[in-house]
């Protein structure tokens, strides 16, 4: 983060929106027009499960998307990372097995490891998690079954993958057979780039509520601002009760101040309009990065064009020294994240992650040119 936020560096590192994209004026206006007593409420502690008006408006929002809000309980959390962390705390005893995708969101890896879970990553391909590999792992682990599986089916971080409907369907009998609970992380589902992707972002929590046990998490970080530190979980009643107890001891409540503002942003329909604009901005940034990669990167590097979200995940030839490329690239003014960071077992994987979300188009092109030159140089001198 310290390098990623240096003004002289073009950063493809942090998975965050650009500062220039935040709806600062809308939020100014919302605050200025709040009744005085609501402003006072905003400064106060609030109920552990969330500011009741925000819970109501978020429930309405998720209901419109077809999510099973009536048969589950909704809780506001301090970022969705807290939701993931709480689920880890509820379910994991030291030495328990947890299945993730490989690669996997670093926050999930560190949350589960903090409760001393043993992580096992199953490879992702272009359509989602590799189901035969998952099945065979679960078959082998019958004497010591994992506590849950953690998946990000929509615009995966770091892989950018959007699961196909078919892949989600194939997962159902495997999870059923092994009675395995799913933690479904949907941090990026709103940020699709076209109609086909829009149809595919339907959460498993919506599709398979009756077939599977699913704890669903979401966040305001990518559709309003990470500084709000607001996310949520939608979970079955029994899990909700345990999660509420955990949250009580963690931070008593998520910030009431930002919950009041997020509620107005959501309730008045401003958020939906803002998300429409953001989809366009991120698509333009993705298009610019994709075009620059085609122009400036060596052909040996392979990648898939994302259909939404923040990231492009690239596979480098195995003989490239990625750490040396990173050093050279920082010296010349561009930074990215090495793929090993996202391996649940910390293994090398010859990948890098580029985020296009917080860099304006003209800088994206320049940064990719710098990185392309460093990659070409490294290919001339194999490790
Ligand atoms: C896949 C995924 N899940 C969850 C989060 C956590 O976000 P937050 O805690 O800001 O809601 C992130 C943030 O980068 C993410 O990429």
Write the layout of secondary structure elements.
Layout: E1 10-11, H1 24-32, H2 36-43, H3 52-64, E2 73-77, H4 79-91, E3 97-102, H5 106-114, E4 118-125, E5 128-129, H6 131-140, E6 148-151, H7 165-177, E7 181-185, H8 195-200, H9 204-207, E8 214-219, E9 231-235, H10 237-251, H11 256-267, H12 270-296, E10 302-303, E11 311-315, H13 322-332, E12 334-335, E13 337-338, E14 351-355, H14 361-380
Parallel strand pairs: 1-12, 3-4, 3-6, 6-7, 7-8
Antiparallel strand pairs: 2-9, 4-5, 8-9, 10-11, 11-14, 13-14
Helix pairs in contact: 2-11, 3-11, 4-5, 4-10, 12-14, 13-14
The structure holds pyridoxal-5'-phosphate.
Notable characteristics:
eight-stranded mixed sheet; globular; binds pyridoxal-5'-phosphate; four-stranded antiparallel sheet; alpha/beta; single chain; 14 helices; Aspartate Aminotransferase, domain 2; Aspartate Aminotransferase, domain 1; 383 residues; 2 domains
| CATH fold call of the largest domain | Aspartate Aminotransferase, domain 2
Morphology: globular
User: What helical percentage do the residues reach?
Assistant: 40-55%
**Tally of distinct domains:** 2
Q: Measure the end-to-end span.
A: 27 Å
The ligands bound in this entry are: pyridoxal-5'-phosphate
The residue ranges in which pLDDT falls below 50 over 5 or more consecutive positions are none
Biggest sheet architecture: 8 strands, mixed
